[in-house]
Amino acid sequence: MYAFKKSGVHGSYDLIEELDVIEYLESLTYEHEKVEDVEYFKKYQAQYFTPSTLKNGLERNRENIVDVQGIVFDLDVVSDFQELQLAFYEALTISKVEMYLWLTPSGIWNGGHLNASRLFIPLAEPIHPSVLSDAVDELILLFARLNQQMKHEFNLLSYGIDITASKTVSRLMGLPIQQKGSIVPWDVEDRFRYKVKAEYHESSFVLVTGVQNGFITFDEANEENLTSFISSYVSKHQVGFYKGVRDNNLIKVIGAVKTAFNGIDENDLLKAFYNAGIAQQLDNPEKDILSKTKRLLKGA
Question: What's the superkingdom here (predicted)?
Fold first, then answer.
């Protein structure tokens, strides 16, 4: 089930069972009329999707998302779009994975990114939101290995890839706006959808270890225990880190950590946030986490 936004980022939502990119492209004109104000178009007219199943209603936030059904990569800096197209055609030929490529509005009309493109890979099986970060890393490595078999370089890291956007569960992704510059599999019925190998595991972390002088005591505040605690807390309470709530929720998680542990080392805590896949969702992870850590853990 995909969340589908029809008229800009502020428009209403709809739900669709499956995004058929080929059918969607066939409904578009070959070349979109020129847009002068790209930012206005993106905000109020472009169409977007989030490849996720929602729990209740149409709220697009981390707490309301059940799973992720596709991976999207934003390629923001493509120096030669024809070279990218050739490489993508070759990747399609060699891999047999179902995947799609199209130009974004910014890429078509020079809206701040050079030939900005979007790579979409629908998954064979939905994944738990907490697995998204690992799934993105997994696919980047897959393409790196595939690149070794190719004549034309197809290294995602060389295209200004926005990894943070790919790892953000509730991120809106723009749909194609024209057929020109879009590439789809010519034999989609003979292809397979990629199955993520990373697996979701419920945390087995046990907090309470005893009572000392009338107070509950907890496990040692090392990197491993902090990682397990944070992952468990975020999963249990469905805490999201999208824009608008990330600061409050970051404070909430650090506050829970402070309650559960004594003698917390801020460097171990920072590593734990990275291990739990949370730091990667922040704009300035070290600054955001360490500044709040110093303030909230003061005197802990």
Answer: Bacteria
Alpha helices in 67-206 (DSSP H): 81-95, 105-108, 132-147, 163-166
| Structure confidence at residue 237 as a pLDDT band (50, 70, 90) | confident
| Alpha helices in 159-284, H assignment, sequence order | 163-166, 223-237, 246-260, 266-275
The pTM of this model reads: 0.68
**How many CA atoms within 13 Å lie on the side-chain side of 229?**
26
> Between 208 and 150, where is the model more confident?
150
Q: Which two tokens stand for residue 155?
A: 């290294």
Contact predicate 92/143, CB 8 Å: no
Please say whether the beta carbons of 105 and 174 come within 8 A. yes
Task: Give the separation between CA 70 and CA 294, rounded to whole angstroms.
Answer: 37
The DSSP call for residue 114 is B
